[in-house]
Amino acid sequence: LDIMKALAYIATLLLLCTACGGGAHKADKNTASIASVVNTQTIAITADDVEQGVADTLRFGKMRSGEIIAKTLRVENRCNRPIVLLRHTTTCGCIKINYDRKPIAPGQSGEIHFEFDSRTLYGWQMKLMEFYFAEKGKPMKIYAEAEVE
Question: How many CB atoms lie within 10 A of CB 144?
Answer without folding.
Answer: 23
